[in-house]
Amino acid sequence: MLDGQRQRCLASVMSLILSNRPFRLLFSATAAANLGDGLAALAFPWVATLLTRDPVLIALVAFATRLPWFLFAVPVGVLVDRGDRRRLMIRADVFRFLLVLMVVALVAPGGDTVTGDLRVMALAAFAFLLGTAEVVRDNAAQTLLPALVPRDRLEVANGQLWSVEQVAGSFVGPPLAGLLIAWAVPAPFAAEALCFALAAWCVWCIAAPVRIAAVPRGLLTEAREGWAWLRARPVLLRLALMLGLMNAMSMMVLTVLVLFSQEVLGMSAAGHGILLTFGAAGGVAGGLFGPRVIARIGAQRTLHLALVLMVVPFLAIGLTASPAIVAAALFAEMVAALLWNIVTVSYRQRIIPDALLGRVNAIYRFFGWGLMPFGALAAGWIVAAAEPGIGREAALRLPFLLSAGGAAAMAVYGTLRLRL
């Protein structure tokens, strides 16, 4: 029976990819872009740890990566609703391609004329610019999908996109980055640049319906329309706020994990990359089988299940020094995250009018992603503040334990108040 379910799931996956060329190109672009993101996810913080052991400076790089979601999500949403979403994606990926070429120059042997903390600050600046382009690309991509896929296939399409994001961004990207760093520090950044170039080309090949550019009526006026629509739907607003808190906790964990991996687990760059692949495997499993879980138990129960599952990984990592347990915890965390994402993203894409999709989606992600940079910065501050009193290892465990407590509170709140 289980083999039959797997075969039916795989057939559903392949039918959409093979029969829908625009979606196939978007799928390929997503794979390439997220492979680049996965290379950067390990390369940026790892290079920062080669330059400094200060947790606040290392957290600054993660903070800079996510800060654009707080600063620019809303104006980017207005921009996405005004213009051609496909062209915005192309321009964002070309911009990222050029930026990463400059990062290669910074970390190349000749770039060591800038040393120490200044190089960390330069990495943070590039991370900020790359994050800004990511805001544009990701918002445009989520709003483009409903124009390429029938609405009754959105869960399947989103599950496939989330799965390939995990495969490329976490399963392949980080361990590949670790191997490339061991060979030459600039190598993962050069590979990242090629990924963004390939993603831009795939999107350029998509034959998407051309949207007529909306007449600008003022940034604040258009943003208020999106906010009014979202505020009138408290379920969506509640989901956005819950996502923001969950992402802040996840960012605390991810920021400290690079130091935890080195100092507590004793892992190399390649070993840390392999560790992250277990999280990716959980993402793939959640992306492929999530739609079937949703169909079986319903969207609301799936969200409750995801909230409960989220508690266990943070607590397990905070209490162990075993790489195997950490790997299993990362797997479980990403299964929970994918279940949540498939339900909520498909829900938004289905109910938000196309003319408002960019703005409402951006405001939603302002709340949902805007707290991530502050979670990253908080992780560095927590470790730095706690270390003198409780020691380095206990301080590195503290963000995981605090996140577990926060996730437990979110699970209780969701069970009591979350109703689709």
Automatic annotation (TrEMBL):
Keyword Electron transport attached: no
InterPro entries xrefs: MFS_dom, MFS_trans_sf, TM_effector
PROSITE patterns to which the protein is assigned, alphabetical: MFS
UniProt GO molecular function: transmembrane transporter activity
Membrane topology: Multi-pass membrane protein
Keywords: Cell membrane, Membrane, Transmembrane, Transmembrane helix, Transport
Protein name per the record: MFS transporter
Domain Major facilitator superfamily (MFS) profile, residue spans: 236-420
Cell location: Cell membrane
Annotated CDD domains: MFS_MefA_like
Main location class: membrane
Lineage: superkingdom: Bacteria
GO cellular component: plasma membrane
Annotated transmembrane regions: 23-44, 56-80, 92-108, 120-140, 161-183, 189-214, 235-260, 272-290, 302-319, 325-345, 366-386, 398-416
